[in-house]
Amino acid sequence: MNTVVFAGFLKRDYSLDVVTINSLIKGLFLEENVEKAVELFKKLIKDKLCEVDEVILSTMLNGLCKCGNVVNAMILLEILEEENCELNVVVYRALLWMVFAKVG
């Protein structure tokens, strides 16, 4: 469903903001559609659809970790560090989940 919504935004030339993009990415993860979430994130960066901030990065990291995609989450964490993004509660929660998932 989120893919259809996103395509509609692009087709109608609506401006996409951080809230809209974040909602779409979060929805894709909730639908367990990791590939589409990553695809949307890459398109966001490539086409500069909106500013990538710590909220979107946190959503991606959290979604990837919860779906068990720790390798891509670690790559994303490196991006966070390179961009000097402030880590928030969601990021720390995702990081803790990764650590305990590896231990357990």
TrEMBL record:
PPR repeat placement: 17-51, 53-87
Alphabetized Pfam families for the sequence: PPR_1 (PF12854)
Keyword Oxidoreductase: no
Matching PROSITE patterns: PPR (PS51375)
Top-rank taxon: Eukaryota
Keyword Repeat part of the UniProt annotation: yes
UniProt KW keywords: Repeat
Entry similarity comment: Belongs to the PPR family. P subfamily.
Matches recorded under PANTHER family: MITOCHONDRIAL GROUP I INTRON SPLICING FACTOR CCM1, TETRATRICOPEPTIDE REPEAT (TPR)-LIKE SUPERFAMILY PROTEIN
Stated name of the protein: Pentatricopeptide repeat-containing protein
Organism: Lithospermum erythrorhizon (Purple gromwell)
